[in-house]
Amino acid sequence: MERIALCGVFDIPNYGDHLFPLIVRNELRKRGCDYEVVLFSPSDARECFVEDSHIHSLDDMERMHQEQPFRAIIVGGGEIIHWHRYQQKYSFSRDSFRDYPMDKVWIVPFMMKLKYNVPLIWNAPGIPYDYDIERQCTNFLFSNIDYISVRNTFSKEVLQRCGVPAERIHQIPDTGFALGSLAAPADLARMRGDLQLDEGKYVVFHCNRFISKEDEDAAFNALNGLHDKGYAVYLLPLAYTHGDDAKLAAIRDRSGGRFRMPESPLSLFQIIAVLSGCAMYVGTSLHGTVTASVYGRKVVSFDYQQTKKTHDLYNTLGLGDYYVTDGSQLARTVDLALKQQRPVDFTEILDAIKQHFDTIVSVLDKGECLHPNPTTQASQFSDMAFLFFTYAYECEGLRKRVKELTEALDTNLRFVEIFKGRSEYLQQENDKLQQEMTETLDYKLNNIKSRLTHRK
To answer: What's the pTM?
Structure first.
């Protein structure tokens, strides 16, 4: 059986990222593609949320390709095309956070493309930040991807500013919207029953450790209002990697038992079951919104982190009135959604995703690169490496000079403080001397006056 490499964030517990392997496999299966989909992430792991697939380290990709070549490499989705390494919790049980090398998820596949000319496909990932001084390097990395798709307007604009021709960029809705065909409704209903959740009679809330105390208080008050209206409140961790479980557990404890949450992590399908049967989803997770809305449920985004991806999502769905960044507006917006929000028509979105996977299958069937590596690739890579090391050298020199100047400034400031203290002491001594001189002169003057008076 031929193999496809799928690269993404599958080695840490984040619900949305773990949807993509399920959806890719499902969409390929629907089109009669009998490929083995092999998962790759920065670290070797077992897939979270009970799916239990083996995640291979990206460090092993080249060796595995040499042993049995991959027909193609697919990257995404998720908000993964950036250079930053943020603190993440790597498993359900860990309490510590460490930097996650997100850049490897898309850089390593590019290097495989560069060295082996294996077809490289983007599965509608997102680009959260613009590029500046590194645009030339970025253009080189993006220029010969065989099929480029991104999930929002901002990501497309970033690519265009990096010099990628607009006609080569396919803007596709987040492929998570295709999850509606992953599970039978009866199976989802059974799972809700096992969790003791009555369809349409509960509200799901999600937040993470980045929520402020003021926003947490606002959310707590809004949830209390929903509870008073007769809705059960279910606190659902979706990104354990961001410390969701600890924060939601604190909110549960604060509620005195009125709010519920899972005692242990749910499986992906259990999470889908919970979100597909709620009366409303309120929270910060993009894929929490995606899942609930696909099943016709009401949604309110509490995007206190003000992410571009969630803002674009709600505008795309025509739900901009239910996108909130300020906790003071949350209760009012929740009440508005209960009264007025209507289900989204996903016809155009699902048609676009269908076309997207049709195109991917077409690339896979051809088994060859649409954009082979140009003969100038090695020279371009050399220029890029030169620019990188030049920037690194210059930055190191600047850091060294800044350190020297900072140390000199600190030294001078210490001298200033010493002289300032000495100056104050000398001023006090001078004042004392002046006083003594004045007193002595006054004494002598009075003494002379006394003698002159006595002689008279």
So the answer is: 0.81
Cis previous bond, 77, omega within 30: yes
- What are the CA-CA distances from residue 427 to residues 89, 345, 431 (Å)? 60, 82, 6
Tens digit of pLDDT for each residue in 56-77? 999 999 999 999 999 999 999 8
CA angle 64, 66, 68 (to 5 degrees): 70
User: Which residue type occupies 448?
Assistant: I
Contact between residue 288 and residue 295 where contact means Cβ atoms under 8 Å apart: no
| 229 three-state secondary structure | coil
Helices (H) and strands (E) in the chain, counts: 14, 16
d(CA 190, CA 196): 10
Q: DSSP states of 350-416 as a string?
A: HHHHHHHHHHHHHHHHHTS-SSPPPTTHHHHHHHHHHHHHHHHHHHHHHHHHHHHHHHHHHHHHHHH
Distances (CA, A) of 32 to 113, 144, 170, 331, 361: 26, 28, 24, 47, 10
Per-residue pLDDT tens over the stretch 15-68: 999 999 999 999 999 999 989 999 999 999 887 777 778 999 999 999 999 999
